[in-house]
Amino acid sequence: MIGVAVLGSTGSVGVSTLDVLARHPARFRVVALTAYRDIDRLYEQCRVHGPEYAVVVDRAAAERLDRRLRSDGVEVEVLGGEEALNTVARLAQVDYVMAAIVGAAGLPPTLAAARAGKRVMLANKEALVMSGRILMDAVRDSGAELLPIDSEHNAVFQCMPPDFERGLSEVGVVRILLTASGGPCRNMAAPELASVTPELACAHPNWSMGRKISVDSATMMNKGLEVIEACWLFNIKPSQVQVVIHPQSLVHSMVQYADGSVLAQMGNPDMRTPIAHALAWPDRIDSGVAALDIFAVGQLDFERPDLARFPCLRLAYEALERGGTAPAVLNAANEVAVQSFLDRRLAFTAIPQVIEKTMQSLATQEAGSLEVIHEADRQAREVAGRLVGVGAKKGYA
Ligand code: NAD
Ligand code: MG
Q1: Cα(370) to centroid of ligand 2, in Å?
Q2: Which H helix or E strand runs over 264?
């Protein structure tokens, strides 16, 4: 039996992960579940999946969950506080860790899992954007496995030859074509974008996701973060990652080879496919996702992205070019700006402005240690927080 810890189990990816795990009770055992403070959902998950541990970051909520589980006779050890996330990520009985916490808060437990040599199933792209070098080194040094959950990167992984880590030019890979749906604002004219509301931004045409990544999809910062993610995961140059708008979200990404071949991975837009792939790899298991009806699809469209209407994508390429702490600054400023937008304190079109100004006001340092990265993250939150007129907010419930 493979022991699995699901970090961020109450979120969109977490719920999809538990759905896949429940289809294979003879193969997987849920060891730990974690949430920020949504104890109603975590309580239900504890009853259904019977983990050994449940972590709640908010300590008062952890105590409430503990009392409730005890009084109902459900045997789960409840731990409170941030540090407990690292504890469960390192447990000896945990073989696989699903890193599905949103934002910078996911970095410490993801890194703990990598350092402990686990199979890390990475949904939390922000961790890699902030500290790509450190995370990739930790994976290599501990012998951990890093499998991408982000649908595009999972698609790329599936289209790569098994020995791609020898070097992409060695194996004949010339480009990654990273697809993007374009999000709910794809066809809006520039003046319309200023009045985009949180409701509209979160109404994604093809994917159902958490609120933060939904806004990132609408601004296209999600694709910017994913370009950075791709560079780290596949050791590829930014100039070799081409973003392609593909509104149907059926081709999840492509890999182009020296001989002219382009391999694509397709499927219905449902996160249970990449989750099942990473859980079973190198095998294949049922995910619960309906088979793609290729005749109903009919047509696939591909367009160039518009960097003028969606400056977040340009800012991500700039952060990549600067390197060092610049991607961590980009990520932190984005988290602050997105939260302010969701709280209706910032216009949609001001999101890239806050990020750009924050990047301009902070010098780039070499991202040699976690301390340097955390300091860059803290400073960026402070500057961006001032720019949106409030103190920086930490994390998302
Ligand atoms: P979500 O908001 O639905 O869930 C986030 C989870 O993280 C919840 O369990 C929440 O309790 C927990 N959490 C939030 N703040 C926390 C904190 N400060 N400390 C500890 N835990 C905290 O998010 P999601 O849509 O499931 O996305 C999770 C991650 O996966 C993100 O990094 C996102 O970019 C990535 N991702 C999501 C999708 C998707 O389809 N939802 C697709 C690709 C990648
Ligand atoms: Mg994605």
Answers
A1: 25
A2: strand 262-266
